[in-house]
Every structure is written in C-alpha cells, then in structure tokens.
Specification:
CATH class of the largest domain in chain C: Alpha Beta
Pfam family, one (chain C): Complex1_51K
Number of strands of chain B: 4
Chains: A alpha/beta (615), B alpha+beta (96), C alpha/beta (486)
Low-confidence stretches of chain B: none
Helix content of chain C: 10-25%
Keywords (chain C): 4Fe-4S, Electron transport, Iron, Iron-sulfur, Metal-binding, Repeat, Transport
Radius of gyration of chain C: 25 Å
Protein name (chain C): Proline reductase-associated electron transfer protein PrdC
CATH class of the largest domain in chain B: Mainly Beta
Low-confidence stretches of chain C: 435-456
Structural class of chain C: alpha/beta
Strand content of chain C: 25-35%
CATH superfamily of the largest domain in chain C: NADH-ubiquinone oxidoreductase 51kDa subunit
Strand content of chain B: 25-35%
Radius of gyration of chain B: 19 Å
CATH architecture of the largest domain in chain C: 3-Layer(aba) Sandwich
Helix content of chain B: 25-40%
Oligomer: heterotrimer
Mean pLDDT of chain B: 86
Strand order of the largest sheet of chain B: 3-2-1-4
CATH topology of the largest domain in chain C: Rossmann fold
Distance between the termini of chain C: 92 Å
Number of strands of chain C: 24
Number of helices of chain C: 12
Number of helices of chain B: 1
Largest interface: A-C, 54 and 46 residues
GO molecular function (chain C): 4 iron, 4 sulfur cluster binding; electron transfer activity; metal ion binding
CATH topology of the largest domain in chain B: OB fold (Dihydrolipoamide Acetyltransferase, E2P)
Number of domains of chain C: 4
Structural class of chain B: alpha+beta
InterPro entries (chain C): Ion_transpt_RnfC/RsxC, Nuo51_FMN-bd, Nuo51_FMN-bd_sf, PR_assoc_PrdC, RnfC_N
CATH architecture of the largest domain in chain B: Beta Barrel
Distance between the termini of chain B: 57 Å
Number of domains of chain B: 2
Strand order of the largest sheet of chain C: 13-12-16-14-15
Largest sheet of chain B: 4 strands, antiparallel
Mean pLDDT of chain C: 87
Order of helices and strands of chain B: EEEEH
Largest sheet of chain C: 5 strands, mixed
Chain lengths: 615, 96, 486
Amino acid sequence: MSITAETAQEHKNDPAVLCCRLEAGNQIQPANLEDPAIFDDLVDSGLLNLDGCLKISQVLGATLTKTCDSLSPITADAVDKIQEEEEEAPALEAAPEEAPAPAPAVSVAGPVSGGTLKIHIGEGKEINIEIPMGFSGGNGVAVAPVAAPAEMKDEQNAEEPAKVVRSVTRKHYAISEVKRGPETKIDGTVLYIREGIEEEAVASQELVHELKLDIITPDKYNTYSETIMDVQPIAAKEGEDEIGSGVTRVLDGVIMMVTGTDDNGVQIGEFGSSEGILEENIMWNRPGAPDKGEIFIKTEVTIKEGTNMERPGPLAAHAATDVITQEIREALKKLEDDSLVVNTETFEQVRRPGKKKVVIVKEIMGQGAMHDNLILPVEPVGVLGAKPNVDLGNVPVVVSPVEVLDGCIHALTCIGPASKEMSRHYWREPLVLETLHDPEVDLCGVILVGSPQINSEKFYVSKRVGMTCEAMDVDGAFVTTEGFGNNHIDFASHIEQIGMRGISVVGMSFCAKQGALVVGNKYMTNMVDNNKSEGGIENEVLACNTLCHEDAIRALNMLKVQMNGGKVKAAEKQWNPNVKANNVELISNVTGKPIELVPNETSLPMSKKRKEKYS
Amino acid sequence: MKYDDKLITMEGVIVEVHDGCVGIDLKGRLGYLKIPMRMLITDYEIKVGQEVGFKMSFVEQLGPEPNLKYISNQQTYQKRQAEKQAAKETGKEETK
Amino acid sequence: MSMQTILLKQHIGAPCEPVVAAGDQVQRGTLIAKPAGLGANIHASVSGKVAAVTETAIQIEADAEQPDDFVSIEGETNLELLKAAGLVGMGGAGFPTAVKLNVDLKGGYILVNAAECEPVLEHNMQQIRTKADMTVRGIKYIMEICNADHGVIAIKAKHEKEVAILNEAIKGDDKLSIHLLPDLYPMGEERAVVREVLGTLLDPTQLPSAADAVVINVETVLRAAEAIELHRPAITKNITVIGKLKGGPQAHVFMDVPVGTTVGELIERAGGIDGEYGEIILGGPFTGSATTLDTPITKTTGGIIVTQPFEDLKGKKVGLLVCACGGNENRMRDIAAKMNGEVISVQKCKQAAEIKGALKCENPGNCPGQAQKCINFKKDGCEDIIIGNCSDCTNTVMGSAPKLGLAVHHQTDHVLQTVGKEVMRYLTTSKKLEEAPAEAPAQESPEPHKAEAEKPAVKYTATVNDGMLRIHIEEGKDINIEFPFH
C-alpha cells in the first residue's frame, strides 16, 4: 500500500515499485509507491520482479515518462531522470512541490574540488537546509573548526586500568590410551578404568538396569552407537578449589560420551535419528563435539522401560555415567607428578572500565525431562551438588564467564542433536571466549536462563532477564539459544525485554529454514544464525548447527556496530546463506584476519546410496 | 518438494503427556504424532484431552532409494528387541 | 393511481412529524409533514385522501383524476422558498438544501455535480437535454443565495451533446463555466468534484465550504429553480429504470415521478420484469442496495435496476474488499450470499476512513494500493473475491489478484452484464483529459492559492552555528542556492 514521506525516507534504499497505475507525466510521490515491507510476499507470489528496479531515493520527485500499472518496478527507462543520492533529504522532503526538472539533486557525496554545490527549488515553503561548513567555503563565512567526534570519544575513554577479577587455570594431562584394569588410575598417558565399575554405576541408580562401557578409539569410529546424549570433558578441581576459581585438571585426548536406550530398546530422550555409525553422526571439532582422534569412554545405559521420556530416566543415565567419571576425577586429583602436565592455560575474567559493558544471556532448555540442565555441580560437568534448572524455576542465574568455561553446566538436553549444546560446548563456549578476550568490550557476566514450557512462565523469566540487565547497567547483550521450537518465544521475549531498556542486543540461534523464528518484535533486528547445514535444516549430525567461533565473531562485531550507533541491515525474509558469507568477508576485510569457516555434514562419510542421492 | 505450500489445518487431541514429550492423536483417524516439549507451544498447563491445532502440508518422498543408514538402524533396533525379548523369557524360565 | 406511500424520512436527520391525519383531504402540494430538528418539509405528491398515518409513512389514496397544478409554497426570500419546498440533495445524500445553502461563500464556488457517476443512470443527462435553461437559472439563484462568484458545472467529457447544450446555455455569462471530468468512478463524489475542479483535496471530515465551495446535485439545482420561479414544492423526482426488462435493457427515464410511487409501478411502466431476475437495486450499482417491488421512491431515489440472476459461486470461499466507493460491508455480504459464496475474509481499503458510521474515501478515485489486501485474501484461503472499488482501485486489484489465483468479481458485475456493458476490471481511461473544447471560455482550473504564490520576494534567514550553515526559507519560488567547494 502507498507509503508516507517518512516511510519513504526509511526505505530510501529499497526498490521503488508503483502501488497503483500512474500515468505518464506525473511526478512520483511517496503515495505512489508500494510499501517495501510486503515485497518479499509479492516476490514469493510471483507478483513482482525487482530486476533493474531503481531505489526509492532515485525516483522520488522524478517524472514518470510512461504510464505504468500497479506493482510495476520503476526502471531507469520509465523516469525522466534518476535522482542522485541526496544528503539534504530533509530539506528536499519539506518541499514536495519542488520542480523535478533541471538538476534539483544535491550532491555532496564527494568533495568535488573546485566544484559547486547547486540547489534549485522551484517552489516551496518552510525549507530548512543545513550544510556542514567543511563542505562550503569562500562564502564569506569563517569556517569554524569542528571538534572531531573521535576526540570526544577518546576523552570519555580516559579509562581506569583493566582489572582481573577472577581466573581459572586449566592444567592439561594428555591421555594416549584408555585401558581396563584392576583400579582406576592414570599412569603416564594411560588411563585405566577399573573393571566391574559398571555394576556400581548400575547399582547407584534404581532406574538403570544395565550399563555397558565401551572404549572407542579412532579405529572404532565406524561402529554403531545408540543415540549420543552428551559429550563431556573429564576434569576435576584441584584440592578444595571451586568451579570458577583456582586450578582445574583436565584430560586431553579423551572424553565421556553418554548414550542409551530403555529396556525396550527405545532411545533415551530421543525420537530416533541420532543413533547409527558414530563417524556419520558426529560433526567433529565443534565446541560441543568430540575432536577427531579423541578416545571416547562411551557408556550405553539401559534404563527402565517407558522412562526414556520421563524426567528421572535421562537423569539416571547421566548420574550412572557420572559414577565412572567421578572415579576418574578422583584418580586425576591424586596425580602428583606435574611433569604430566602438557599444557597450562589461564582464563581470566578481565573487567575493562570505560569500555562498553556487555553481558551474555544464554538460554538453556528447561521444558522438563531431558530438556533440562544441571547448574553448578561441585566438579566440572559433574552431577553432585548441582541444581536442575527446572527445579530453580528457570529463573536467570548470573555466573562468571570463567565459571561457564570451568564446567558449571551439565547439559541433559537431548532433542535436536545438531543444535543441542552438549556439556562440552559450555566448556569451550566460543562466544564467551571471544568476548572475554576482546579488549574493546567489558564482559561483566553470563546470565543462564531456562526456557520453561508454558508461555506465562516464559514471560515471567524473560522479565527477570530484563531486570537483571537493567541492574547490571550494560550497554550491550547477546542472547543465545539452542535449537528451535517454543524456546524461540522466550528467546524473542528476552531480546525485547533487553531492547526496550535501550540496551543494544544481538540474538543468536539456529534458524535457517526449519528454525525460522515463530515470533518477532521490533528489537530483533540484529540476529546471527548458527546454521551450518547445507539445506538449512536440523539434521541428525551431532552439534552441526551449534554456535561456533565464526558465529561468535559475527555476533560480537554486530553488537559493537550497534553499541557504537551503527545500523545493521534488515534481514531478508527468506534464509539466504550469502548473508553470512558477506558478513564474514566484511569482518575479515576490516580486521585483516581471515575467518576460516567450519565444515558441515557434507564433510562426513556417507553411505553409498546417500552419496548418489545428494551428488 | 512439490506440495510444501499446500497448507492444511490439522487438529488433534493430546493423549499422552510425558516429562519430555506429548503424544497427539490426530482427529479423523489421520494418525498419531509424538513431539518433544519444545515443539509444543503452550499457553496453559498441558493436560490429556486438550485439543491442539497446527498447519501442515503433505508428506512427500524425497527420492526413490531407501537410505541404508536408516535401514541398518532399524535392523539393529529389531535385533535388540528380539535379544531383549529372548533374555526376558530366559529370565522368566529361570525363575520358574 | 392508487395508494402513494410517502415516507417521513427522505433526508438526513430525524423523521418528519405528520401534520395531517387519516381521513384528511389533501391536494397535490399540501404540506403533510414538518421537520423535527434537521430535516425538510414533505408535501403530498398527489391529490386524494389520507388513508393512514404510521410511524414511518403517510399513505394517500390518490384521486383518479390528478391535477396539473399544485399548492404553491410561500416565502419572502429565495432561501425561504427552498426551505418551504422541502428541497433536499437529490444526488442521494438528502441533506436539506436550505441548510446547506445558508452559507456565505464570499465569492467562492458553486460546483454543480452533473457527473452522473453511477454507471447506467441517465436521468441527469436527460434533464440537461430538456431543461438546460432552467437548470442554469437555478445555478444563478444559488450563487446569489451563497454569495458565490463562480458557478462550475462538472460533467463527464463523454457527454459531448449535453456539454454542447450547457455551453450554449451559459454563453455570455463569464461567471459560469464547465469542468470536464474523465469517465471514471467516483468522479461524482463530493470531495472528488472539489478536487477535480479546484485542485484541493479535502479531508474526509471536511465540508466543501473549507474550499469556499458548495457542491450541489444538478437535479437539486433544477428543483431549486422550480421552487423559486414556480413556487413548486419538491414532490417529484426524475428516475432511471433499467435492467432485465421486457423490451430490452435500455434505460427508461421518467421525469417528474410523484414521490411515493412504488418501485413496482415504475418497473411496470418501463415494461415489467423480463423473466428470472437476480435482485432489484434502489439507487446506482455502486451505492444502491437491494429493494422490493412495494418500496416507495423518495426525493433521493435515482435509479431502479432489475438485474439478471447472480453468478453461482457454489459455496466457494470468498473475500470481500469493502471500500467507501461501493457498498458497505452489509451490502457486500448481501451480494456474496446471493452469489452463494461463503465469506471468510473481509478487508477494508486503506483509504476508507470511517466518518460518523459511514466509510469515506480519503482520496476518491486515486488508489492507495491493494496488493497487501490481495495477499491477505490469499493467506486467508479465499478462492474468489468480491470488490466494490472505484475504477482506479479495481485496476490495482486486477494487478495482483488474478496472479495470486483469486477470481475477481465486482459488485456491479451483474448490473453491467444485464445492460450489456463491460464489467469493471482494468483501467483503460486516463485520469487526465485533453484540453476541453474551445467553446468553453473559463476552462482552466482556478488556483486557490494563487495570491500567495504570486509573492515575489523570497523570505529567508541564514545562520552559522556549530560548524553548520543553516538556511531557512519560509516560502518562495525559483530559489537557487550555490556553494563553491574548497
């Protein structure tokens, strides 16, 4: 439908399409133009083809040279003159009667040396023209030096020094071999797991009927596995240290993997699809996935029939597995030989006063059963001492970024293997790492918030998120979520609650085709899609569509742009992978650092038949 | 897909409620659907007997060839079922 | 003649109060009801005996012999005569003329609406052909009453014969002129006439007086002359009867039909209904509504249309595009029901503004775009749509609906098909007209803001502040600003 002068100004770079028939000889006004907001629908319906279409700013005020019908894109051959880019738009807008003909355009785009800026107004009222003096001269007016905005910024940034408020040191112990033995111990680079430990694991949980332990070495990557419920680092705190401080010991080259079914062979917390040949189902080296070459200590837990979809079932499978992990942790804690430490890294939470203050809001699942997360166990990614997010009422819990990296989340989430954030994901969370290490921003914390099932509860928690951000007085916020579905409702609400407080906000989610957002609001202008899959759908490949380094960089840059008053271009209606490619290119052009994109499921081996189908 | 824009309205009844999923009988003998919680948008507490609605198009085959991966998964599942059944029966006999 | 039913409400305002009782003898022209509040006198249109006085009507049993003369009205001034005559706007609105003309236009414009905008109606043109001189005198009386310097007759250019007759009739009077209109609907809408003639677009809430003008229907002008010259009350109406009639679908124009005559009588006079029919419309195809044979005509009735049977949509899902130019939602639903369509979506044109319960178009005849509405229909699952739009909007709908797979029906289809005219779909007529015929002396549109535009000097101020050069120009023409660059 026809648009107003204000809408035309907002959409000045959008295509100019006539909403109705307009006869030759008429001057093109905003009221003659169709609202660009419906172009996607029109293009989808085959009603519109925007090829060769001029921009709104190029046609306003021009005269139509041939009669065109409704929904005609205005092309160069249909107007007497293409209007040039006008920086003086407000002035011209105020004078709609202005004659279009000879050189009405105001071009101040380039500093034309020795050139003349000419404005001609045929007729008008209440015209205001503002010209920065830098552009004019020799006009009998002294040119006053203008304070550069950059200088002012520097003044503001006369900052206090950065301060380390918290740090965690990770000591890495390399494991090259995992064997069974009479006791659980670490001998050099060999990890021994006590034979018969399975029985104790089974005994620890009433619902667990059976537990099988497999050591999966790379040569066994091509074997069948039940659905992968979780991938966990094996780590332990040193001495009395708590999560988020002190020293953490971690085993390199080996991970825990939880899998399982119920007595009837039905996958736990799953609707099929993720079980199968391991190497066909794992997107290697994703933050939450195993790295290629690592050894998996894989439990295959059998739980009581019919409990695979009930809350106690998946929890029991995790708890039983943790009996084994805990015994390894104990062995790890006992190590006294520091020569086994192959690498030490320290994660510091640095507060940077004077820099833009940002917070990361991580939405975690809390709809019930396997849609749950255990928060803040005693040991990294442990079970003991942790509180289930669902029991906490899904309300926001503020943690330190280094607590996140130190394993404060034990993830039970099982639905959507491709977009699920495994426990290991938090351990290597790219957005937290990237933001933590960026000297230009001040990361003050991470807010973990659950996603409840019922809408009223969703809005209850999102309001708390808004209040928390308000109290933190942040300049910017990231909101991330995993997977898609009803969690997008609270995801959108978090963004709204933060945005309405005048805080810049960037949302991150798997969207693409299948995860297209179910709701939206006016603050959801800056979104990063975590999709990596070729077809834009949630496939069965573990961690394929989770947040990666490349997404973190895009989100961080997007937030910086917004915090500094820039604007992010509106999204296209349909998923277009080129948007990401363009952004990545733009960012690497500016930073000078190439961004290497991670591979997707097409890099994995496929059965012959699949290969034929997809190639 | 050829028919993915032919949206039809479907209605169903919640017949099973689990902690992590719900089972839905589609009205008019049109099938049964089991979906994880996050795929259900709820304004009220979930109860058996509540009616639900959604739009869907038709299910189309993506190609003529079965995917061996899924066939193998299916076979594994059936084999396990058989093993478990056998184990159960053996157990029963032992207790006799 | 038998029973005449004269409605007590034939105008905008409250129903009139009867001043006669059952059994009274009345003459043609006898005052039988007076306004209660805003309204206009009602006179007996026939001589006879009052048979009954109900809450809504006075029934008069007409004498077999009807006189040619009538009871004269009285009044000191012309305006009083119009009031006494019970004259109301005969284009359909029914606003009491004496109230409307009680305005000082201070040299402004009387715009005579002779657009006869509704397709198929012809009685206005017939009036011009037969009573041009009296009509022109009516314009002069009204200009005098309202203190207007200009009288402009707005008429569609396609009526070449009538334009020629009018040109002859106004010859020598430089205060009178003719403005030609394109053959589009709704050129006769009051604000469309003002916009076309004076170039001023009024808000839907504004009256033409905001542009120093009064818009008056051409038949009202004639009746005003009759009231002033002949002291004749408003007791008759010119009517077009057309449609599926025995003898063919051509128009039958009946001049000076006594108010209170039934639709059925007039149809019989026109030959009678020819077999199966769809509906009988009282008024024009766009703004009229379905009526019955025993309905009496009033001072505002213009047309009676007998349509062919409706197309059967066989229960298909239809959307209604309601706009100010055509029927309201009730009328559109009525048509949908008669076409056997199930209404599942109702969209309103963006420009249709609701003013005092009625829809008015913000810019009559200039489309605001309809693509979004068509997409909405599609999303709602419509297969067919019924629209009541003007020529321009209909053309826009045709730009998108068929491509979306929506079958388009216009509310006037059954009327236009009955009379063998092309249905409303694509626009082929230009909104602009070639220069008018040379005989018309005062052709060019007057410029209402001329005086202001002629100011020679450009008032402006220029200031330098914060490194910005600010120029403010209050008003001006042909302004040139030049800055040399460094």
